Every structure is written in C-alpha cells, then in structure tokens.
Amino acid sequence: MPTAYQKLENIVSNKYISDNLIVRHAYSRNVDPVLQGVPDIVIRPKDAKEISEILKVANQENIPVTPRGGGDCEQGGSKPIEDGGIVLDLKRMNNIINLDEENLIVTVEAGISWAKLNEYLCHYGLYTGCMGPSSGMTASIGGGVSHYSSGGGGAYKYGSCTELVASLEVVLPTGEIIETGSQANKFSKTPFNRFGNGPDLTGLFCGDNGIMGVKTKVSLHIFPKPPFAYYKTFLMRRKSQQATAKIFSEICHKGYEVYDAYYLDDLMVRFGCELGLFPMWDSLKRKKAIFFYTLEANSEVELDEKIKQLDEIIISEKCEELGPEISDGNIAKWHYTEQGHWQMYHNLWGMVPAYEPLSAECTVPINIFPEVLQDIGQWEMENNEDINKIEEITKMRPVAGSGPISLEKGNVAGLATGFNTYASYYDGEIHEIIEEINLKLWRSLIERLARYGVQWFMMGDFLSRVMVDVGGYSSEYYKFMKSIKKTLDPKCILSRGKFNFWGTE
Amino acid sequence: MLGSYPNLQKGCGDCGFSIRRAVGRYLTCPVKESKGEEGFEIYFSRGRMNVLKSVLEGKLPLSRELAEFAYQCTECANCTEVCHETHNENLVLNTSKWIDHYKVWDALRKDLVEAGFAPLDRHVDLVDYMNNDAMKNPYGEDFAKKFAWASDFPNIKDKGDLVFFAGCTMPLRQQDTLKNMMSILIAAGMEMALSKEEWCCGSIGARIGEYKSVNELMKHNIDILKNMGAKTVFTACAGCYRTLKKDYPEILGEELPFEMKHITEVLVELLNTNQVPFKPKEGERLKVTYHDPCHLGRHMDLYEIPREVVAKIPGVELIEMKRNRKHAWCCGAGGGVKSQFPDLAKDISKERIREAVESGADILTTSCPFCIGNFRDAYEEMEPEIKEKIQLIDVIDFIASKI
Known about the structure:
The structure holds two protein chains of two kinds. By secondary structure, chain A is α+β, with helices and mostly antiparallel strands.
C-alpha cells in the first residue's frame, strides 16, 4: 500500500515534492515574526488537474493542505497553522494564459506575481489598475484575490483586486474543478464578466483566505494605462488625522477620480527621519504628517483640471505643498515612478534591526478613522506594562500605530494598523516572554479594532482565529460560513484551522 | 559566526523581494531561476532566511544537508542589492542599514565549517591544496608552476613600488591571458615587480567559510608584499582583488600597507594617457557588451572604469545588457558553486550568455578569470546559433589583440 508521500509523488514526480526538513522550514513562516508551522510535505503542482489529485489524496489520508502563492501574508496565512500537513507551493503555476486585448481581460495562472503580470501588460500599454497588495509585487494574483489586496496602488480608482475578477478556475477541497463567472456558462468562449447566471459564487472564493478552494486560474479586467500622471505631496498642519478624513470625504463626495491618496502620520515621519530613512524630508523644519496623492489622466487638460480640483480641497485644510521633485520631498513621485507602484511596506519593514510588524490591517468608514487611530494610542498606554517588558529586553519600545492610511474605493479608509515588535529570538537568546506578550498584545489589538466594526483585508492564520474567538462574527453568520465550509470541505482539509474550522465539532 | 549576526538575520522581513522585484525590474536570484520549476523556496534568500531563523532558534540543527543547500549560492549579493535599493538617494530603505545577506551567508558557512559539516567534498580538496606547503594554490599544482609563465618575462623585478599579484587561476589556467597582459604593460612601458613567493590569496577559503587557511595565507602574502616595498599592488583577478582589498583589512582589523588596484584601474590610466600602442583596423566596428563580475561590481563598486577601458579599444561600440552594473546577472561561478556544483554554474552562465546575445553584441567581454572560465565552459555546450552570434573574450586578450 503506497504511503501518502508516494501517492503524492506519483502525481507530480519526485522533482516537485519534498519532505526534506530544511526545505520544509523554508516554507514554515510568513511576514510576521511570531508564527511558524512546519509542513510535513511541500509540493509544487503544475496545474489544476494535479491539484485536484493532490486534494483527493489529502482527503483520503486526512492531511490538511495550505495553499501558498507568494508567501507574503502578514498573519501566517500561507503556512500551516500547526506543524504538519502539506504546503501547496503554487509558484510553478505562473504563466499568462491569454490576453484578450479587445475585451481587456487577462487570464493567468494564479501563482503568477503581480510584478510578472504587470511587466507583461506594460508592453501593451495596459495594467491591472489595482496593483496588488502593499506588501509588494512578489505577491501572487491568487493570494491577492484570497485577501482583497489593495494597498499596492490604485486603491481608490480601481478598488481591491477582487473587484477586477471576471472569472476563476477553482479546485474545490474535494478535488472537483469548477469555473465561475461567465465561464460557468459552458457556452462562453472567453471570460468577460463575473456577474450573472445566478448567485455570485465567484465571491465565495474572493477574500476566502484559502479556505473554500484553491484558485488555479484568474481572469482579471485590465485597463489602458493613462499616458499622463501627476503626484503631489503635502505637509499637514496640526490635527492632521481629522484634516485627512475631511479631504478623503470631500474627494468622495465630489466624485473626484484620484488614483491614490495616502496619509502618513507625524510619528512615522519623525521616526523615519530620525533613522535617516527619509533624506528627502531632512530639511523640513517641522516634521509633521504627510499627505500625498497620485492622479492619472488621458490628456494634459484633464490632468490639470483634476489637479486643480484636488488642490482646492487640500489647500483649504491649510496643507503646505512640497516641491515637485523627489528631492523636494515628493514621496508620491517616488512611489509612482520609481518604486514600481506603491510597495508601501517595503520601506517600512524592519525600521530598526529585528523590528517587525504584527499587523491588523483593515478598512473603516472614513469618518471614524481618526477615532480609531486615537484609540490605538490609548490601547498602547493601557498595555504599557507588557510593552515595557519587551523594551527591558530589547532596549527599544514596541510601537503601535498605523503605517500609511489610504483612501479606498467605496469611501473607506484603509488602515495599515498594528504594532512593531521583536521576535522572541533577540540578540542571541530566546526570550519566551516576548512571544507570550506579542501574542497577547496582538490578540488584544485585533479585538480592540474588531469592536469598531472594521473589515479586515487579510486574516490568514492568526487574525481569522482571533476574530472568531472574540465573537467578532454574529453567530448566524458564523454558522452560515461554517455550513458552506462543511459542504465544500467535509474533512476540513483546506487551510485547516483558519476561522477555527478544524474539522471537529 | 551566525550567532553574532542575529540582528542582521532578523532584519529580514520576509517580504519576498528576493524572488522578484517590481515592474520593470529584474529577477533576483540566479540559483533560484536556474532551478526553474524545481526551485523550492530554500533556493532563494527568503527561504534561506526562514531556515536560519529556525537554526538560531534551535529548531533546526546545522547539518551536512543544510550545507548542501547553503553552498548552492554564488554569493553574488543580488539579494542584498534588491533588499537595499531605492534607486534614489532621497529615500533609504530601512534594511540597507543593517542587513547584509552576504555576511549572513558567510557567517553560516563559517559555522558549518566549524561544526564539521563543511567543506563539501570538492571544496575539501581545494582547501587541502591551499594548505599544502608544496602547492599553496587550489588547483593542486606544484607551487613553482604558478610562476612558469613569468619565465617569458625575465625583466620583471622582484622588488618595486608597483607589484603584480598574479593569483592562481590565471597563472595556472589562463597563462595566455596573463602573457597578453604583460605584452600590453611592456608595450606601454610599465615596470613592475612580481613575487615568486606569493601564495593563494585565500578567496576560495573565504567563500567556503574556511578562514583558518585564509589567515595563514593572508599574513604570508602581506609580509611578502611589504618586503618587496610595494606601494601599489594590482591584480588581474577579480577574486583576488576583492579578497585583498576587502577581506584582508576586515580580517586584520587594519588598513593594508599598500594601495590595491584591479588591472582595469591600471589599464584605464594607460589608455587615458595613450600609452597603449593600438593598431586599429580600418572600418572595424564591433558591438561589445561588458559583463560586471560580482566581485568587481556589487562587491566592490567598480562599474565604470572597466567600461571606460572597453570603450577605449579601437573599433568598439559598447552596448549594455539589460541587467548591468548593480543589476548584473551573476556568471554562476562564485561562492564555490563552480567547483562543487559545476552544472548549476554552467546553467547560470548560459542564461547570461543568452542575455548578451539579446543585447545585440558581437562580443561578450569581462575582466574576471572565473567569469570568463565559466562562460567558456558553458559556451562549449551551447547551440551553434549562439556561437555564431557571439564570441567570448577577456578584456585583456581583447586589448592585446589590437596592439
């Protein structure tokens, strides 16, 4: 009787499967410094058919399977929750299947990165509009769709990447392969539209954090890249959070089409300048909060009009415009033209050695984001004692707050909230107390934010479980979600443990 | 040791940039790309960092198996470049301030050697040869053979301000290039000294993590060069250049007692003062692309001078490959990969040669004996269509062919 490993090896061949301990540890972490789950097996399938066979074996053998695209989840979503199981590395599935230039649809294998896709599209004068997550373009399209990714650029104009989905090919947890959207119609020759022909079951797999199915192909709406763009950065006055909320709100109410708008609070600006990260702002006398936006247009006339509209709102909040060049402090220009679209997080990770975020990124209505940020400050003070314990060891205080705050489609503010802290391994020693406090504080912050009714971008391992633990879902909704999960995945093979779906009563 | 670099290692935010960068940017890891579809995450920087986190936390022991993975890395430092780069002096990426992947890989290799899990098989031989008093080179050749090429040049002095450090690869494997170099320098009227007592620079040992041999070699070489009265030492080997100019002072904890130059830095001075008697061919126009050796480029910031040298060769139109300067794709030979994993080294080289062909160049040139050697080995296995489109030549040989 072949073992599970042998059965899996027969599917992909011995080149694309490993149970080597070192290989497994390479897949055991994500971006956060705390969580780890070492799989028993890592497997690299090439297509939906192989994934289907793998999931069938997993069901037979009752082995949990965790899909992994780019591996950039900030809450441990692309590694097993507990040691064991299979990690499905989808990066082999990274091809562009079809570009339908006429209908502006691109179909890709789900393991392709945002970088590779957009690099391909730019030769046709096209782009994805929404440029994926703020964690960078190494993230995969499939992962983005699993998480409502939107911080990578175009968040206001195009929304999150899930809004661009026209259809999906999904392998269900029990191995069936389905297509959704227009492709659910067996007579449809080409994907073109997500909505119609009954309930929007594509949505079941959008933002699912990998629990409802393994996405293998994604068809996205794509867009011509406007030939004109402009980017401005402003220094804000006091009460910058309230001013930003007002600006965001005005933009929405007036229906102005902004590609992106971001706010960086003064703590981040000051801290970053002190660390020498923002030479562009060294000469600013007042290291205050920063607001920046990017506009796109099809003509210079249109661009000028948009700039005028937007500046009227911003200047009414007494913001001081910085010069047009990057050397003047125009971080918007740097992001759009040089950094390759808004990898906001890359320049924030590891602000000091070993200092990494435990993030709780979410969206909130624009009008409450200042209150939420203030409350995070309050939360930090309430947890001073625990934070001090980490500071005693590391000589650097964990700091709670938010990274860049973005204006998102749907009149919401995207908050890159969380707190920066250290892993338990610090300066050559393991400090278990750091891990205990980190998990306690992370959970506490998530619970605090949940009570504002936030919507989480990505939930992964930790956030999905804490949201359930703190009673963040109504019981009816949770039962509903559970019943769908149980129908699709009776043995809870896929992403076992997320949302506390363990497969046991 | 790795334990003394916890913050360097822990600065890795797992962002995955070491797989691929942004739009319009380039792939990062030559080993990972060479592995293709078989490229598990252990083969690029982020995956390796994840493993090291487990090692530091005591969850994974050092092992021979870990060594087999760890040494499949050319130490080209492209991962560091990607991690640090902003393209703009007005904004600094945090990680550029403390994480240096090269140092982390170096520390790991030292630990593996200390724990007895390295050197790997072929590296053991190299180290043994370097330590062997009758050899003192990694090729296993008799010591005296290193200087056989010099018998063609009886006028080389044994003391002087300007000393040539020949290294091992060129004297033992690329003698013609070395002799061509001498022809150029003699034609330019240069006088120089050569020691027939120099030992291997220790680059092989340093890249492998075997520093005991390096220490002994280093002390010997510095003494020899000092005793020769050297004020300036130059070498035609990028590996020796990096080792003497960067590793020696770091290990010693003090500055070298002489100035260290690469052959291209010497050549550019001669070319700028028209001391190289070229005989240009009428109407000849060659498109030439220059490959940045990692040990000259990313490791030592020497990008423009070699280009200046190439551009001054008569009849040359210098064109760039898509990935050039700090983005240059590795040739595949470094970090001990050539000796222990020769097929991997050649695969990476073939990628670079194809890139040279894509640039439209007639000639691919470089100034590193490891790069040119690995290119030649890979080239031999490539399709005739490639060989029809591009020729390989060391910068030195190229210049010599024109005088």
